[in-house]
Amino acid sequence: MSMIAAFYGGKSILITGATGFMGKVLIEKLLRTSSELRAIYVLVRPKAGQTLQQRVHQMLDCKLFDKVKEVCPDLHAKIRPISADLDHNDLAIGKEDMQELLSCTNIVFHCAATVRFDDHLRHAVQLNVKATQQLLLMASQMPKLEAFIHISTAFANCNLKHIDEVVYPCPVEPKQIMDSMEWLDDSIIEEITPKLIGDRPNTYTYTKALGEMVVQQESGNLNMAIVRPSIVGATWQEPFPGWVDNLNGPSGLIIATGKGLLRSIRATPMAVADLIPVDTVVNLTLAVGWYTAVHRPKSTLIYHCTSGNLNPCKWGDMGLQVLATFEKIPLERAFRRPYADFTTNSITTHYWNTVSHRAPALIYDFYLRLTGRKPRFTKLMNRLLKTISMLEYFINNSWEWSTGNMEMLMSELSPEDKRELRSTY
Ligand SMILES: CCCCCCCCCCCCCCCCCCCC(=O)SCCNC(=O)CCNC(=O)[C@H](O)C(C)(C)COP(=O)(O)OP(=O)(O)OC[C@H]1O[C@@H](n2cnc3c(N)ncnc32)[C@H](O)[C@@H]1OP(=O)(O)O
Ligand SMILES: NC(=O)C1=CN([C@@H]2O[C@H](COP(=O)(O)OP(=O)(O)OC[C@H]3O[C@@H](n4cnc5c(N)ncnc54)[C@H](OP(=O)(O)O)[C@@H]3O)[C@@H](O)[C@H]2O)C=CC1
């Protein structure tokens, strides 16, 4: 058994964001490789009319957990759902649940966040800043806590071209931002949001940077680390290649290309596409948890989980690979033959959006109306173009992330654990 997997044996682990894309892969890896762990507490909010037990059962029923069920038949017993809602200042955790979390938790992985780029600043601050502060307060009352791992994003400081593994201060202190959200009304917050986020593209990257400042300022004596993944895509190898469960980041646009919906996108083909498979992010995150607990660094270390300076790929190459893949393995019921190209200026982008996106959607919806069916392509195309407008910033810029801490961590790993992590770089 790997040194890292053995470390988690007997441990009680608290995961926020467990029902999310990364959270599911984190749980799967822990259960598959450290089945001797004591318990995984998952903070889950009741959603879409489902109880948290129903949500957890539905989560464990997905294909991702097929392999785990072979090696960890009692996986349902290992998972302890805890009702919580990070939209509430007290996280809406019941008294008894809170007592158990405080008394038992050895490791915290804080993955929960709003990852929407267009979230209202009030909500983004609540989830990505205030909830982090609340969890740090909880962690400070955990006598058995060995490590608290905060998942941020490599784009928290995307307003810089070169980003080191340090926490960069934001112009306004997180406490002032959180306090102002208590009394400003939504319309005023909307008015001042552009000034507050400054040269960051959205509330997501801004509030992830604020969350890092809270970790730095309010972690006290906690044994902390921050992991900054870049653009997280489908699984590379574990538990099987190609698993993804959302349309975020590249996934939605790749599928839209395969369906023949996306025909052109404004991108800089020579810009670095810093993509990282979700299982690599999880492997690094578990290694960070182990290293932080065992070696107890003197300060909060930040680890860039990025590929750009170790195994660079350009958007142009990625686009060609996407098209070649769909040539070989076409998606079912495609709207058109997959073909897409990059545009590099606003005029050609506007032209191709009209000719290749809006017009065909209008024509097809007209046909659907004529044949008595509900039109839907114009709405879908508008959403796709809105998504692209949000993502364009990230595919027309390049960043350089230092990876000293990540490479130091790799040097501390056993050959077996190193192989798991190096499989991607
Ligand atoms: C030349 C060849 C080209 C080949 C193509 C390859 C191009 C790849 C480009 C990849 C670019 C990737 C850049 C990513 C950068 C991320 C950087 C930061 C990473 C992080 O740290 S956080 C994780 C990333 N976060 C996100 O990606 C969130 C971004 N999304 C949003 O913020 C919202 O989805 C958005 C964009 C504001 C849209 O909101 P909204 O209109 O409200 O839509 P919903 O999200 O509610 O979804 C409504 C509806 O649409 C479906 N949907 C969502 N996304 C997509 C999509 N990308 N494509 C198609 N359809 C999509 C969704 O399923 C919903 O459907 P319903 O049926 O449920 O209504
Ligand atoms: N995906 C990516 O490309 C990248 C992600 N990251 C970071 O990784 C982490 C996980 O991201 P990812 O898995 O993609 O995100 P997802 O959107 O897939 O998951 C977000 C998780 O947070 C939970 N959550 C959201 N709001 C609440 C709430 N009010 N109360 C309780 N839980 C809540 C969600 O629960 P529910 O299921 O109930 O909605 C879900 O489990 C985030 O911190 C993100 O910033 C960093 C870099 C890249």
From TrEMBL:
It is found in: Peroxisome membrane. The keyword Glycoprotein does not apply. It is an enzyme of class 1 (oxidoreductase). It is a single-pass membrane protein. It catalyses: hexadecanoyl-CoA + 2 NADPH + 2 H(+) = hexadecan-1-ol + 2 NADP(+) + CoA; a long-chain fatty acyl-CoA + 2 NADPH + 2 H(+) = a long-chain primary fatty alcohol + 2 NADP(+) + CoA; octadecanoyl-CoA + 2 NADPH + 2 H(+) = octadecan-1-ol + 2 NADP(+) + CoA; 18-methylnonadecanoyl-CoA + 2 NADPH + 2 H(+) = 18-methylnonadecan-1-ol + 2 NADP(+) + CoA. Keywords: Lipid biosynthesis, Lipid metabolism, NADP, Oxidoreductase. Residues 357-420 form the Fatty acyl-CoA reductase C-terminal domain. Residues 15-284 form the Thioester reductase (TE) domain. It comes from the Eukaryota. Its EC number is 1.2.1.84. Catalyzes the reduction of fatty acyl-CoA to fatty alcohols. PANTHER family: FATTY ACYL-COA REDUCTASE 2, MALE STERILITY PROTEIN 2-RELATED. Belongs to the fatty acyl-CoA reductase family. This is Fatty acyl-CoA reductase. It comes from Erinaceus europaeus.
